[in-house]
């Protein structure tokens, strides 16, 4: 099939690669404009753009597709390009721009979206993070036909994936990217054969995955240890859970919740931080055993190595105000 592909990060690059290797004709790739990245803040192309350029695919990077938005001239040029590019279908994965009705109406077979949740649960920007944070035991991929709403379109394919007890957003992202890359090839095969029926999303069970902010990554040890463990996993690798100790902001990369029957302590108090041990911190319920930390400008270290240069015995983590 002739495909216009719209996507930006690694998650989307995996599906683009899968479609290309399956023999589909990628006639145009839409991706977000290059962004400053790294210590030097040099402009960096998206993962999707890098793959497209390596394989000779034409690329367009409009800042907007909304004709009535802030950049109407850019959007108009993008519409003209889409209209002038013969294609069968548009495939979208983590593109990052809103597709207005005027764009959704262009592809003859519509716009198919690869969404990293079992819709209607976790519509929105951060379904992988929110599934881990909420303690879900499963997630998955939904291939949906896009409409004007926020991830509200009819479902075409849906496949579950278990969330492991040690999954982070990083590891779950990789598993879901691989699953989505496989499913979109299957979806297009069925679509071409006229065997891909659409099913409306159920009205029950709708949740929204709000965009992750750095502010919410600050740990509050007044919360139960189990809640904090999930947050640490959910915010790894971005934005990284944080906590302050003696005024020093630390990143917390790995931890496990201990049972509620551990010796009581004031939330945030370090119950143990001896050589050869993890850092055990009292929480609102239970205790959190921190296994990996990082100080500003330093490397991620296991707790034993970290404590050699950053003693914590008898201290306490600060509690966020408010």
From TrEMBL:
Does the keyword Transit peptide belong to this entry?
no
CDD domains (UniProt xref): FMT_core_Met-tRNA-FMT_N, Met_tRNA_FMT_C
Residues annotated as transmembrane: none
Any Pfam family from its record, for instance, is Formyl_trans_N
Q: What is its EC number?
A: 2.1.2.9
Q: Which residues form the Formyl transferase N-terminal domain?
A: 1-188
Query: What keywords does the record list, in alphabetical order?
Result: Protein biosynthesis, Transferase
**Transferase found in the keyword field:** yes
Instruction: Supply the InterPro entries for this chain.
Output: Fmt, Formyl_trans_C, Formyl_transf_N, Formyl_transf_N_sf, Formyl_transferase-like_C_sf, GART_AS, Met-tRNA-FMT_C, Met-tRNA-FMT_N
Q: Where is the Formyl transferase C-terminal domain?
A: 211-310
The record's Gene3D superfamilies line, in alphabetical order, gives:
3.40.50.12230
Chemical reaction(s) catalysed: L-methionyl-tRNA(fMet) + (6R)-10-formyltetrahydrofolate = N-formyl-L-methionyl-tRNA(fMet) + (6S)-5,6,7,8-tetrahydrofolate + H(+)
Q: Which domain of life is it from?
A: Bacteria
UniProt-annotated binding residues for (6S)-5,6,7,8-tetrahydrofolate: 117-120
Which family is annotated? Belongs to the Fmt family.
Matching entries from HAMAP family are given as:
Formyl_trans
**Role of this protein:** Attaches a formyl group to the free amino group of methionyl-tRNA(fMet). The formyl group appears to play a dual role in the initiator identity of N-formylmethionyl-tRNA by promoting its recognition by IF2 and preventing the misappropriation of this tRNA by the elongation apparatus.
Q: What is this protein called?
A: Methionyl-tRNA formyltransferase
Query: The organism's lineage?
Result: Bacteria, Pseudomonadati, Pseudomonadota, Betaproteobacteria, Burkholderiales
């Amino acid at each position: 099939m002739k495909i216009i592909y719209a996507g930006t990060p690694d998650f989307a690059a995996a599906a683009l690669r899968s479609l290309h290797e399956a023999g589909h004709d990628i006639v145009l790739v839409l991706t977000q404009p290059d962004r400053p990245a790294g210590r030097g803040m040099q402009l960096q192309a998206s993962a999707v753009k890098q793959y497209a350029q390596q394989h000779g695919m034409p690329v367009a990077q409009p800042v907007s597709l909304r004709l009535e938005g802030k950049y109407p001239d850019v959007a108009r040029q993008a519409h003209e390009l889409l209209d002038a590019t013969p294609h069968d279908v548009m495939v979208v994965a983590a593109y990052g721009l809103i597709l207005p009705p005027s764009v959704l109406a262009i592809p003859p077979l519509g716009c198919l979206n690869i969404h990293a949740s079992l819709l209607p649960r976790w519509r929105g920007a951060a379904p992988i993070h929110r599934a881990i944070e909420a303690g879900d035991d499963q997630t998955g991929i939904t291939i949906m036909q896009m409409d004007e709403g926020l991830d509200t379109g009819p479902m075409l394919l849906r496949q579950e994936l278990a969330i492991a007890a040690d999954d982070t957003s990083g590891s779950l992202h990789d598993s879901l990217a691989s699953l989505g890359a496989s499913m979109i090839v299957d979806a297009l095969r069925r679509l071409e054969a006229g065997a891909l029926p659409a099913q409306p999303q159920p009205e029950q069970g709708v949740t929204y995955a709000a965009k992750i902010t750095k502010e919410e990554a600050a740990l509050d040890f007044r919360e139960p240890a189990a809640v904090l463990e999930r947050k640490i996993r959910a915010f790894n690798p971005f934005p990284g859970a944080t906590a302050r100790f003696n005024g020093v902001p630390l990143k917390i990369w790995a931890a496990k919740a201990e049972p509620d029957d551990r010796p009581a302590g004031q939330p945030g108090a370090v119950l143990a931080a001896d050589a050869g041990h993890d850092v055990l911190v009292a929480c609102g319920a239970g205790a959190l055993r921190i296994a990996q930390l990082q100080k500003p400008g330093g490397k991620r270290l296991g707790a034993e190595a970290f404590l050699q240069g950053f003693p914590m015995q008898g201290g306490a983590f600060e509690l966020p105000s408010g």
